[in-house]
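Assemble and predict.
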Amino acid sequence: MSHSEQERDRRPGYERLDGHEAVEGIGSYLIGLGLATLLTIVSFFVARTTLVWQPSIPVALAVLAIAQMGVHLVFFLHITTGPDNVNNVMALAFGVLIVLLLITGSLWIMAHMNQNMMPMDQIMQMQR
Amino acid sequence: MSGFEATAGRGDPNPIGYNRESGHRPHTAEHAAAGGVASKRIVVGYGFWIFLLSDIIMFSAFFATYAVLVGQTAGGPNGRELFDLRNTGIETACLLLSSFACGLASIGAQAHRGSWFYGAMAATFILGAAFIGLEVQEFVGLVARGAGPTRSAFLSAFFTLVGCHGLHVTAGLLWLLTMMAQVFAKGYRADILRRVLCFGLFWHFLDIVWVALFSMVYLMGATI
């Protein structure tokens, strides 16, 4: 191995994983897989069940979906609160803000426009 | 080393990806001169993360379109009549397991273990391809029933949203094969490992979008 290659391999982020670190990594993915499977099964169960009050089901599904996205972010994408992750978390927070604005804004505006719109049969009559 | 810590502490407290743990490791001259700037691996991951967030914003626009148009069936079939939750469940299992296999593959690549990396990547590919196969089958079935994207605004939005995710997965499968070929041809070089890292992020991101899809489109569509 040349000198420059040795230097490069010592730089943080380029160390080859040893057996212990690899086992640790697999453990994290296994926890993620377990939690994600559990949340998925609960989602599918909630969608079909008649045991709970029906109007609460969409809320339950949304909560379960957000929880599962959190599990994926932490255990699969390794977004943490560690010091090397501050920028990733800030970018994620900004992304979530834009997504919320887009979705709630669209639904809010379109609901109002639907309300203010003349019923379709009346529009049809005016066109005659 | 203490001098390095002090300079890093005086400036921006959170330079991109600055890692306190790695600050204790021996540094090359190039590294120390940059004043605690993160390793290239962390910076590349951050850049790709920004791209993924922009992709999430694009998907959220499609989600908003779908949510606005979900009731506009123009007298045609609605989600409750069209969606087969069993099929959706199998698709979900495929994509979740393929995401897990992709995680194993990225560990295998970092550990420079060939059989592990190739085996896990092959499993990722097979599960991803099974997902795409099921989705294409579902789309063909819908079009054959006269519920194609031209039937109603609801179905246009449905095909756009789910099809866009399917196209992402297809592109991911091509990228996966490229990464296997690059590791095979060039070995576990630092730049190749960074590409494997980005591919892993992309694949896990697709699974996150699918979580939103099966919850908001299929499960809610089948209940409401």
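The CA atoms of residues 110 and 116 of chain A lie 10 Å apart.
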